[in-house]
Design goal:
Number of strands: 9
Shape: globular
Largest sheet: 4 strands, antiparallel
Helix content: 10-25%
Structural class: alpha+beta
Number of domains: 1
Strand content: 25-35%
Number of helices: 3
Radius of gyration: 16 Å
């Protein structure tokens, strides 16, 4: 019975998270092509969490890049935490870690549900469990995450 409950809770949590990170429907947005505005160049930001470890995220959405820069400059403190879908392979810009944040599915939030919360090192240590009961749907919403700086482009 416990296994059935865990599976049902995981499926329900994944559904809630998918709804949370889903983009608006085409009907509710202006007819300007893509729902997410792509940036001309990606931007890279360093985030940290309660562990003080650092993790680099790549952003490709103009809206998310602008929000990240506003957070770093102190212009806003709304939605300070990183919400993303984990890709379980390393990125060249973040070589210390065996996973990366999906640049196409990274945004920011104020409050999240517990099922997607985890620290950077805990994700690394349990990467083989990501997508099951641990971080269902590979959705990661580190409650203590915060951006600390932008990495200048070369």
């Amino acid at each position: 019975m416990r296994h059935v409950f865990t599976k049902a809770a995981s499926v329900a949590a994944a559904g809630v998270l998918a709804f949370t990170v889903a983009q608006p429907s085409q009907a509710s947005t202006p007819l300007q092509g893509s729902v997410r505005a792509a940036a001309s160049d990606p931007a890279y930001f360093v985030m940290t969490d309660i562990t003080r470890e650092e993790f680099v995220i790549k952003l490709t959405s103009s809206k998310e890049i602008a929000h990240a820069r506003a957070l770093i400059s102190g212009e806003t403190d709304d939605e300070p935490h990183v919400l993303t879908r984990i890709i379980p392979r390393p990125a060249s810009y973040n070589p210390r870690w065996s996973f990366q944040a999906d640049p196409e599915q990274t945004s920011f939030f104020d409050q999240g549900i517990e099922v997607c919360d985890s620290s950077i090192p805990y994700v690394e240590d349990h990467l083989d469990e990501v997508g099951g009961p641990f971080l269902p749907g590979r959705i990661w919403c580190n409650w203590t995450s915060r951006l600390v700086r932008e990495i200048p482009s070369s």
